[in-house]
Amino acid sequence: MDQRLLGRAVAELDAIITAAGLGAHGLTAISVDTQAVACRIRQVSDVDLVGGGGTDMALGLAVAAELRPRPELTVVITDGYTPWPNAPIPGMTVIVTVVGHGDREDLPPTPDWMVRVECTDDDR
């Protein structure tokens, strides 16, 4: 995912967190590529995004499932080119925001138990 699209996605998520007043309580963010690193944040811009390829969201969601208390909601921002877990995570709703450029028929499918939102960039 290019940096401009990632920046737009992060700004949207930050606005949601601010509008809902969630930042005051602190949130856990997990930056994922070939490793998954969890950190406590108050706003999305606090996340240190690492990596640059080989993203494995199955690994990131496994880290989320181990958090205590387990999150009831996990929002994933991705270009969609990633492996996914085979089975639902009990008690956790997963919303996948697929960020990209228009029609991308080559994307792997998102599991049926996740909510998928397409966020395309038609500004190019």
TrEMBL record:
It holds the Pfam family DUF2201. Signal peptide: none annotated. It comes from the Bacteria. This is VWA-like domain-containing protein. Residues 2-104 form the VWA-like domain.
